[in-house]
Amino acid sequence: xxxxxxxxxxxxxxxxxxxxVLIIIYILVxxxxxxxxxxxxxxxxxxxxxxxxxxxxxxFKFIVFLLAIAFLIVGLANLxxxxxxxxxxxxxxxxxxxxxxxxxxxxxxxVPSRLDRxxxxxxxxxxxxxxxxxxxxxxxxxAFVQLPVTTDYAAAKMFLASINTSSVASQGTAxxxxxxxxxKSFADDERSKAIIIISDGEDHENQTAMEAATEAAKxxxxxxxxxxxxxxxxxxxxxxxxxxxxxxxxxxxxxTVVTRLDEDMLRRIAEAGGGLYVRANNSNVGLEKIYDDISxxxxxxIETQVFTDYEDQFQWFVGPGIILLLIWIFxxxxxxxxxxxxxxxxxxxx
Length: 350
Fold this sequence. Notes:
The protein has 350 residues and is an alpha/beta fold.
């Protein structure tokens, strides 16, 4: 059996985005420094005016720093290797979590925002799952399967981390479509099935959502809803392409739009689907309460092949990362006097 590699914390790999960001910043700083020097003197005079400066050493030191950061990030993600596969019997249910990604989910009446708090709660739930198969659906004006039902909880966390309000281009809150999509996406077997809708409930197609929940319940699929938002509501923040808030959404008259939780509709959807409704607040989203109820459903035993005896390999990255970081710390950006005898970083004749 060949070794299988996986990352224990794949979500940490998103931090690698800092590498190209640092490269861009470094290039811009070097360009600015060159422009400032040109205002002072000709660039050919730099070697005489700043004899201890080494441009290539500076670049080399920066590369060492980037490599150290990259190694440490990969080390934190903890690469693991496994070579032993076993047949494992697990009991559980099939569960789809449908997450509202309309712009109103950026509202901050639930801190840090309705959507971010939802993702935090789902992430904690995934960490507690044992044999249940979990899938993720995102919806706004349209609904899409972000992740089919799976027991690969690491992959579920990775897909969850990528969800934002830009994941679906058109705006709206198509709860009915999300329910129908989840019903179609479930495997045709005897396992108990449930759908959790996480939304602020601002749906302009209430009847469609009610009908979808009723039809799902007829097929034995329970519908649960979580209301994300507070009764007083909150304005909808607007962000630019860099993730910086630029203001709040306004209507045609120039008034700030306030998004409010439609608690009544979410409660009626849960009742039609034979499940529960829970309203989130700043101390508790309520996902644990719903999962406790789902755990009471009849669980079917399934056999699945999983790799066991995974061994941590983080040391192969953390070790070199620390060594490179120490080299970076003790490496001077300029030449030392004894190094003038050797052209380590400079071409001969320079």
